[in-house]
Amino acid sequence: MLVAAIMDIVTSNCDTIEKTPFKSSLPGNATMRDIAAAIQVIEEGGMYFDEPEKDDDSDDGRSGIKGIGIKILEGTTVLGLSRTSGLAPLGDLNANAGEETPKTFALLSKHDNSSQANLSSAVIPGLWDDLHCQHVAVPFAAWALANWAMASDTNRSHIQELDRDGQVVMTALMAPERTVKWHGSLVARLLLEDLKLPLSDSVSDWSSSLLATVSHASKTEDISLAQVALSAFLVSVDRSDKAQKMVMEKGLHLMRDSARKTRKHKAVQEGLSKALELLCAGDMHLSLEESQKWSGILLSWVLGKVASDTVQSSARRILSRTFEDYGPHSVPISQGWLTLIMNEILNHSKTVSAKGASLPKNEKPKVDQSKVTSATQSTNLLAVAVVNLAMAQLGTVPESVNNVPLADLLLSEPFAVPIKNLKKDSPPKFNAAESALATIKAIKSLTDVCAEDSVCQNKIVDFGILCLLRRFLLSDDYEKLGAIEAYDASRALEARDRTPDSLGESSITDIQDPCSVRVPASAHIRRHAARLLTILSLLPQVQKIILADETWCKWLDDCAKGNISCCNDPKTQSYARASLLNVYCNQQDGSGSGDGGSSKPDISNMNSNCPRYGDMIFLINPGLPHWKCHEKERQSGKKNESSSEGEPANVTDTVGDHVVDASNLSSSIDPSSSGSHVHDPEFDVIFLHGLRGGPFKTWRIAEDKSSTKSGLVEKIDQEAGKLGTFWPSEWLSNDFPQARLFTLKYKTNLTEWSGASLPLQEVSSMILEKLVSAGIGDRPVVFVTHSMGGLVVKQILHKAKEEKLDKLVNNTAGVVCINASCLSGILQLPTFWQQASRYAVENGSCVTPGSIYRRATKWFSKTS
Q1: 234: which of 76, 141, 478, 640 lies 20 to 30 Å off by Cα?
Q2: Strand ranges in 54-211 using DSSP code E only, listed in sequence order
Q3: What does the alpha-carbon distance between residue 232 and residue 112 come to, in Å, rounded to a whole number?
Q4: How many CA atoms lie within 13 A of 668 on its CB side?
Q5: Which residue range forms the structural domain that includes residue 74?
Q6: Where is this region: Disordered (predicted)?
C-alpha cells in the first residue's frame, strides 16, 4: 500500500497541472514491450505471473515474466511485480486490509548483464504480504503510462498505437482508485494535446468520464483531481465535435454543479468558464432554458466573485452570445445584469461614505447622497421588473422558485425581496413599456452616480457594462418585447371572439386590448446608454475595446450622421460622435486620460493636443465634416471600409431637421476622399441656457406655443412641428460653415442651492473643466447665453483668468446675452426672478426670493 499512498500524496499536491511537481523518471524511448505490459495491467486489472512466456524475440532465450518491466533513467535496473500463480482480479476497494490471501508478491531486481536463469517466484515476507495485486500493480502501471506520455512524443505515439480504440485510457478514467483516475486523466490530456496523433474514437466517452470525475471531485473537494480531469476535459471539448455534442446534451448540469461547489477555487472556475465558452463559440448554442440556468453563475463570474480576468471575459462573451441568440427573451438576464451592477456600485458608495463620515460637511456630498438615494430606488424598481418579466414569460408563479430556470439569479440579492412578495395565485402582468422605463431610470441613475467618479467608472467597466451598452444601442429588444405583447393581446382578442357567449364576460375581462399596448421608450434607452458610453470613452481600456469593434464604430458613425432611423435624437447623435472622437483622438494622442478621474482636477494642466468631450457638451450637427480626428480617424476608415461596401454613393443624411449631403460628410473618415480637403474650423460658438432651460429646448422656435410650457425634462417626440426649429443647427450651420457649434447642459435646480452661497461657482468651475478638456479656447470663441447662462459665462471667464487659462480668456471674441444681465452690470431680469421666486415657493426652498436677489446682486457687483 506504500506505493499507492505515495502516489496519492504526490497527486494530491499537484496544484497546477501545467507545472507538475515531478519530472518524468522514465525514458523517452521506452520499448513497446514495456508499454504493452503496463497497458495490459490497466486493461485487465491485474497481472499474470509464473506462466512461461514464449517470446521468439527474447535476447537470452530464457522464459520471461509477464508483468511490468521498466527501465529507470540513470540506471539499468528493471522493476517488476511477481506472484506465485493466477490472475489477481479486481477486488473490492473497501475490503478488510487484514484479509488473508494466499497470493504473495516479490520485488524482483535484476541487471541487464546478469546471467540469472530459472527465475523462481521467491516470496519476500513483510511489506508486500497480503496485498491485493491491483492495489499496487494498476496504480503503478498508470503512473508509468503517464510518465512515459510526458517523456516524449515517441512514447505517446506508441501508447496511441497500442490503444487504438482508447479503451485502456477509458478503463483508467473509470478506475475506482483515485491515483489511477489522476494519472489516467493526465494520459488523456497528453494524448489529446499532441496534434500529431489522430483522435481516438473514444474521445467523447473520455469527455463523459472526465466530466463525471470533475463533478464527483468537486463534491468531495478533491481539487487536485478535479483540476487534472478538467484540464483533459477542456482539451477534449476543444478538439472533438462529438465531445461537444455529448456535453451539450448530457453534461451541462454536471458543469453547473461543479461551478457551484468550487466557487472558492479559481483554477477550477477558470477551466469551467473556458469549457463553456468553447461550447458556445461554435455552431452549437445554449438553449434559452440552459442560458437562464447558467445566468446566475455567469453573472457572478462577470461581477468578479472569482478573482480572475479570464473568467470575467469568458462570462461576458457567453452572455453576449445569449443576447444575440434570444434577443427580447433574454431581457430578464440583461436587466438582471444591470441590477447587479447597480447593487455593487451602491455597496461601494456606502463603503466610501462610511469611510468619509468624519470629513467636513459641504454641499457636494449632499448632492452625491441624493444621487445614491435615487439610484437605490431605481435598483429596487429594476429588480421588481426583472422578477415580473421572468414570471410573465414563465406564465405562472411556481410554488418553489428553485424549479424556475432563472432560480440562481432570482434567489440572489436584490431579487429575493420581490420574489417573496409575489402572489402565487396571480402572476404579474407583463408590460414592455414599464420594463423599458425601469431600465431607463437605472441607466440614468448609474450614470449620475459614476459621472465624476473614476473608481466607479472602472468598476462598472470591469463588471461588463460595455456589453450592456452595446446591446442597448445596437438592438431593438424592447421594441420586440412590445411587439410580442401586442401580438399576444391580439391572439387573446381573437380567442375571445371565438368564445361562446355561454362562458360569460367574466372570463374575458382581463384580456388586453392590442390598441392599449404602449410602445417602449427605446429612444430614451439609447440616449442614456450613449451618454454613459461618452463618459466611459475617456478611459483607455474602453477606447481599446471600442476601437477593436468595427461594427460598433460603424454604428456610432452612422448614428452621428443620422443614417440610422432609430438615432434621430440630436443628443444621441452628439454622444455617438463624441464617443468616437474620444476613442480615436485619445488613442492618437497617447495620453488616454479622462476628465472624470476626480471631482476637482487641476484644470491648468488639462491642455492636450486632442479634445476630450464629456457628457455636458453637445455637438451641434455632429455629421458635418469638421467633426473629425485627423489621421487617426482616417486610419479607422480603412478598417471600416470593407464593412460599408455596397452602400449607395448618394445618400442624404438628416441631422435633426437639417439635411446635409452625406457625400460631404464621408470625407471625415474616408481616406479615398483626399481630393476634397476639409479645413479646420475657424472659430467656435457655444450656446449656454439659463434657469429651467435645456441645451436644445431653450434654442427652439416652437411652432406650437404650448410646447414651451413643458417641464424640466425634454421629451423626445418627432411629431412634426411639436418641437419646433432648433435654429442654431438649421440657420447658423448654413451661415457659418467654418464654425463648430456646441450647446452646454448644466443643472439649474433652485432647490439645490445652499443657504450660504449660490452654486454658481461650482457650476462654472465644472463647465470650465469640460470646455478646456474639449479644446474650446484654442481658437476664437463666441458665447451665446440666455438668462442665468450669462452669469455662468461671466464666472467661467473670471475663473479662467484666476487659473491663468490665457487661451480661453484671450480667444473669447464675444458674449451674446439674450434676456440676461450681462449688458447692464446689475441684475435686471424680471422674467428670470419671477420664475425664480415662483419656483422657490412652489418647491419649498429654504432660501427666500428676496435673499436670492440681494446675494446675487452683491456677488455680481463684486465680480463685474
Answers
A1: 141
A2: 70-71, 78-83, 105-110
A3: 37
A4: 21
A5: 16-163
A6: 630-654
- Residue where a domain stops, chosen among 135, 163, 191: 163
Q: Provide the CB-side half-sphere exposure for 224 (13 A, CA).
A: 17
Confirm if 521 and 440 have CB atoms less than 8 A apart.
yes
Phi/psi of residue 114, each to 5°?
-75, 155
Write the single-letter amino acid at 93.
L
The backbone region for 362, taken as left when phi is positive above 0, alpha when psi lies in -120 to 50, beta otherwise, is beta
CA distances from 78 to 44, 114, 465 (A): 22, 12, 62
Mean pLDDT of 152-180: 93
- Check residue 600 and give its pLDDT: 43
User: How many Cβ atoms sit within 10 Å of the Cβ of residue 497?
Assistant: 8
In 303-431, which ranges are continuous DSSP H helix? 309-326, 331-355, 363-394, 407-410, 416-420
Residue with cell 438553449: 287
Q: Which of 745-749, 782-786, 846-850 has the highest mean pLDDT?
A: 782-786
At 107 the three-state DSSP class reads strand
User: Is residue 55 helix, strand or coil?
Assistant: coil
User: Considering the domain boundaries, does residue 278 fall inside one?
Assistant: no
Q: Letter for the amino acid at 562?
A: G
Q: Average pLDDT, whole number, for the chain?
A: 75
**With left for phi above 0 and alpha for psi between -120 and 50, is residue 825 left, alpha or beta?**
left
Phi (first) and psi of residue 758, to 5 degrees: -75, 155
Q: Determine which of 340-349, 653-662, 696-705, 726-735 has the lowest per-residue pLDDT on average.
A: 653-662
Alpha carbon 226 to chain centroid, angstroms: 27
Secondary structure of residue 195 in the 3-state scheme: coil
Residue 751 vs residue 229, higher pLDDT: 229
What are the Cα distances from residue 301, in Å, to 296, 319, 338? Answer: 9, 11, 14
Asked if residue 818 and residue 685 are part of one domain, the reply reads: yes
Residue 780 is which amino acid?
A: P
Mean pLDDT of 415-439: 85
pLDDT above 70 covers a percentage of the chain that reads 65
User: What three-state secondary structure class fits 302?
Assistant: helix
Task: For cell 415662483, name the residue.
Answer: 838
What are the DSSP calls for 545-608, one per residue? Answer: HHHH-HHHHHHHHHHHHT-STT---HHHHHHHHHHHHHHHHHHHHS----S-S-SS--GGG---
Question: 435 and 478 in contact (C-beta within 8 Å)?
Answer: yes
- Quickly state the pLDDT bin for 200 (edges 50, 70, 90): confident
Residue 603 maps to a domain: no
The pLDDT tens digits for 288-315 are 999 999 999 999 999 988 878 999 999 9
Cell of 127: 511489506
As for how many domains the chain has, the answer is: 3
What pLDDT is recorded for position 500?
56
- Of 163, 190, 222, the one marking the end of a domain is 163
Residue range 321-343, pLDDT digits in tens = 999 999 999 999 999 999 999 99
Query: Position of cell 457649434?
Result: 741
Q: Which of 130-144, 255-269, 720-734 has the highest mean pLDDT?
A: 255-269
The cell numbers describing 332, all together, are 430578464
Residue 836 neighbours by CB under 8 Å, 6+ apart: 691, 750, 849, 852
Residues 781, 686: contact at Cβ < 8 Å? yes
User: Sheet containing 78-83: which strands, arranged edge to edge?
Assistant: 70-71, 78-83, 105-110
Answer yes or no: is 142 within a domain: yes
Flag the least confident range among 539-548, 688-697, 717-726, 798-807.
717-726
Whole-Å CA distances, 288 to 224, 244, 395, 405, 660: 33, 18, 16, 9, 44
Question: Average pLDDT of 126-142?
Answer: 61
Identity of the amino acid at 272: L
Q: Which amino acid is at 224?
A: S
Please report whether residue 209 resides in a domain: no
Q: Are 304 and 438 contained in the same domain?
A: yes
CA–chain centroid gap for 659, Å, is 38
CA-based Rg of the chain, rounded to a whole angstrom? 37
Specify which residues 110 forms β-bridges with. Answer: 78
